[in-house]
Amino acid sequence: MLIRFTLYLCLAAGMLSTATSCSDPSENNLVVLDSLQTEIRQLDDFLKSIDYKQSMACLDSVNDGLHTIAAEYQDTFPKSLAVMVSSYRGIRKPLSNLKDRYHVYLQEMQTSANQIDNLRKDIQEGNLEGSLVDKYLNDEREALASWQQEIEKTVNMAKKKLIQYDSIQPYIRHTVDSLKAAHL
Length: 184
Fold this sequence. Notes:
184 residues; single chain; mainly alpha
């Protein structure tokens, strides 16, 4: 995380020095657009760094395991199982959040990339005045910063919970299999 932040600062400093050396304001704006496009690509790569299909398979397994255990122990869990079930439930929310938001994030980044492409065309063709360009650039910067924080939080939490899932799953799987075998 610190390395990524440092990389962004270096990239921003490089873009700023390039932007200030340009004589034409539209060139400055194009440099800013290049920077925004780079950030979108990096954010897209970060989002795709988590295996979405595997995460959803884990979520399905968690839901199935919890359903089976809850059906057997409708009142009280044994103490050792209660601790595992509590941890197992803690896995479900971040993975559900990833499921709910993953495609929204992808769509938002695609929309932003399209807006930046359109803004680039308008700047190059001289269709927008300076204050309007500044407003649009600022809007894109703010949106990207907001998504970046949310995406990083969602993906990092899901990755942590997948590690936890790997450590708990054998015990839960054994318990679920035992419960199913007892009912045969």
